[in-house]
Amino acid sequence: MDDLWQDAMDHAVAIARKSGQMVREALRDDRKVMMTKSSSIDLVTQTDQKVEQLIIKSVKEKFPTHRFIGEESVAAGEPCDLTDFPTWIIDPIDGTTNFVHAFPFVAVSIGFCVNKQCEFGVVYSCLQDQMFTARRGRGAFCNGEPLQVSTEEDISRSIIATEFGSNRETEAIDRMFSSLRKIVCIPVQGVRSAGSAAVNMCLVASGCVEAYYEIGIHVWDVAAGSLLVTEAGGVLMDVEGGVVDLMSRRIIAANNRTLAERIVKEIDSFSPTRDDAP
Ligand code: IPD
């Protein structure tokens, strides 16, 4: 019983590494945008689709009863339902825009939930060859080395990560800038954007940035990273405070509650359409 999901996690690590190899090869000669999704800057490449197919096919062969929520499958019309069944939550390339531009932060993100609870998370940062792993109750690691969030309690001695995502509606942009302006002027020591939600969360787990927040992410961007943050000692919070809901498309991932609550005070929140909206 102890090692119930270890097999699945080992498989996730192996397939993430194989996917990363595909991403690195494609970076050299196939970074073309194939189509766009929610907006003209929400990009999809052939590699996003190929990597997701590779992961789903290999998991189906080994764990035929498991279910999936995959970024490209959902875009193709599959449901985005998180049930109590073992479910793999996959972002084949988190940081697709980075990939298209060869901006070097591109990750394969695989979260695994049972009874709606994350059991493990794997984020492979392909170009750095960094394998981030977390198993519920057993800590977070990068290439096998334990991770610990920063101990900083003062936001004015912190670096905060955030992103603008792919929503360019004026009202959403105004709110994002207003929040960012207030956070910058606290003042914080710096603001960073890796261009990948999963990588931002790994930076929080690693203690390099104190917190990351974003409105507009999807469950596949943050499922694996969420467990990395909490297993490294950090906290997750909704942008209005309270418990995070991975389908709500809003998240604060911070080193501690003090910083998360301080960020809540500065955010002009809004609610994008939920991932599990009918
Ligand atoms: C995106 C990245 C980006 C974040 C967006 C995500 P994708 O994921 O994580 O950093 O700002 O909200 O959708 O589309 O590259 O998988």
What does this structure look like?
The chain is an alpha+beta fold and 278 residues long. The protein has 2 domains: 6-146, Fructose-1,6-Bisphosphatase, subunit A, domain 1 (Fructose-1,6-Bisphosphatase, Chain A, domain 1, 2-Layer Sandwich); 155-266, D-Maltodextrin-Binding Protein, domain 2, CATH 3.40.190. The protein has 8 helices and 14 strands. The strands form 3 sheets. Strands 3-4-5-6-7-8-9 form a 7-stranded mixed sheet, with helices on both faces. Strands 11-10-12-14-13 form a 5-stranded mixed sheet, sandwiched between helices. Strand 7 and strand 8 (140-142) form a beta hairpin. The protein is globular, with a radius of gyration of 17 Å. It binds D-MYO-inositol-1-phosphate. The site of D-MYO-inositol-1-phosphate (IPD) has 15 residues, from strand 4.
Mean pLDDT: 96
Strand residue percentage = 15-25%
The oligomerization state is single chain
Associated small molecules:
D-MYO-inositol-1-phosphate
The CATH topology of the largest domain comes to: Fructose-1,6-Bisphosphatase, Chain A, domain 1
Strand order of the largest sheet: 3-4-5-6-7-8-9
Helix and strand composition category: alpha+beta
CATH superfamily of the largest domain: Fructose-1,6-Bisphosphatase, subunit A, domain 1
Give short descriptive properties of this protein.
single chain; 278 residues; alpha+beta; Fructose-1,6-Bisphosphatase, Chain A, domain 1; D-Maltodextrin-Binding Protein, domain 2; 2 domains; five-stranded mixed sheet; 24% strand; globular; binds D-MYO-inositol-1-phosphate
